[in-house]
Amino acid sequence: QVHLVESGGGLVEAGASLRLSCAASGRIFNTYTMAWFRQAPGKEREFVAGFRWTGANPYYANSVKGRCTISRDAAEKTVYLQIDSLKQEDTAVYYCAVSLSSILTTDYARYRHWGQGTQVTVSS
User: Fold this and answer.
1) Per residue, what are the HEC states of 29-96?
2) Which residues pair with 22 in a beta bridge?
3) Most buried residue, 34, 41, 100, 102, by most Cβ within 10 Å?
4) Buried b (16+ CB within 10 A) or exposed e, 37-71
5) 113 bridge partner residues
């Protein structure tokens, strides 16, 4: 069983940066993929960024490309999401998720394990 715990969210002003963390426990194989999703009130959950557990092949949604970096600390089994130049439209609950597939997908239904989420609120 994989357990994920996100942290690092908060209330920030537009233009600021945040680094979200996702601490993982349990058995995670290098063939798994990890991703960050977000869900704003009244909207569907959307893919933000993801990569293979090894850190290979990062992929970003167009909405965050150039402002976002996904990374990991293998020793700590922690995945990070750095978001710069935050905009009000980035306001959402951010979730990390693990898929058992080695092929990265933006479809949230393909992800087996989820954290509880961390709220990011960007004020004007």
Assistant:
1) CCCCEEEEEEECCCCCCEEEEEEECCCCCCEECCCCCCCEEEEEECCCCEEEEEECCCCHHHCEEEEE
2) 6, 79
3) 34
4) bbeeeeeebebbbbbbbeeeeebbbeebeeebebe
5) 98
